[in-house]
Design goal:
alpha+beta, 311 residues, 21% strand, 6-stranded antiparallel sheet, globular
Length: 311
């Protein structure tokens, strides 16, 4: 592992190659994320439901259970789902092409073998087509190379997002992956309450979305693309969105404001091909936050310069 990575070291991502595997794995992460959700105390803005980028894949982190805990990890190196418990229990199952229905059944059988009893709302959230997990034989693709490449991309992005998060001394979310939209995100808060959220999200309770956007935010993230926008991309938006927000100049030059989506976008390719991918992404994160802070009259003292502490 080379700490001083050469230019061009970020992986190439092509949505059409990733698409089938991502759709399947997203549904698998919804199952795992829901297991974390129902066993973890509610944390503001749904922070208790997310997954985290790990050194081998994606992880729930520690999930409280009884007088101990357990954890579920997607290992995208050895391509296994690993469940470990604080009582010493350890089970693995291979990650390979299988239906969502089979993954659901295999995982809950494995949990039962470990004496972990849990129930979830067994259908997807935030997706238009919410096939119950036990009935989903449509999504069944797992390309080990493609998911490994995607995860290697998340590793690099997570490091930059973590650095960006460290520059803010106000309330800020962890860097985490929301399995509903399948986006890696980090969110800053102004400290002020926001107008009642009126947006609609497929197969998502209104009260959950209203709590998520109960306070003013500037949020940035990465998602791997969709049929509607078939390009992996970074995004940045604020809520509420001031009238002049989308008119602000942001960096790098490839970034643009989508009126339809109400957010700034930067295609992943522009970062991946840059001479300095980390610096390019940081410019996007910092300048789009500045757009939100300037037009939304945020307290500029919430940003800090930690350059004297970095070494």
């Amino acid at each position: 592992m080379n700490k001083n990575k050469p230019a061009g070291s970020w992986p190439e991502l092509i949505y059409s190659d990733l698409m089938d595997t991502l759709q399947t794995v997203q549904l698998w992460t919804q199952i795992v994320g829901k297991i974390r959700m129902v066993n973890t105390p509610w944390t503001n803005h749904g922070w208790h439901v997310t997954l985290y980028v790990s050194s081998r894949g994606l992880s729930t982190g520690r999930i409280p259970y009884g007088d101990g805990s357990f954890q579920i990890d997607f290992d995208f190196i050895d391509h296994q789902l690993v469940v470990c418990a604080s009582d010493g229990g350890l089970k693995r199952m291979p990650l390979q092409s299988k239906t969502v229905a089979s993954f659901y059944s295999d995982l809950f059988n494995l949990l039962n073998e470990m004496n972990i009893s849990t129930e979830i709302y067994a259908r997807p959230n935030e997706l238009e087509m919410a096939i119950p997990f036990v009935e989903d034989d449509m999504h069944n693709t797992y390309d080990a190379h493609q998911i490994h490449t995607y995860w290697q991309t998340l590793v690099r992005i997570d490091s930059v997002f973590t650095r960006f998060r460290a520059e803010f001394i106000g309330k800020c979310s962890p860097v985490h992956l929301f399995w509903g939209g399948f986006d890696l995100a980090v969110t800053r808060f102004s400290g002020r309450t926001a107008p009642l959220y009126q947006g609609k999200v497929p197969n998502m309770p209104e009260r959950i979305m209203q709590e998520a956007y109960s306070h003013e935010v500037s949020s940035a993230g990465f998602w791997p693309g969709s049929d509607a926008y078939p390009f992996p991309a970074f995004y940045s938006y604020c809520y509420p969105s001031p009238p002049l927000y989308g008119t602000q100049l942001v960096e790098p030059e490839q970034a643009f404001y989508s009126v339809e989506m109400g957010e700034f976008l930067l295609n992943y390719e522009a970062v991946q091909q840059a001479e300095d991918p980390e610096g390019t992404l940081l410019r996007f994160l910092r300048s789009t936050y500045e757009a939100a802070a300037k037009t939304g009259n945020w307290d500029y003292k919430l940003s800090c310069n930690l350059s004297g502490f970095e070494k």
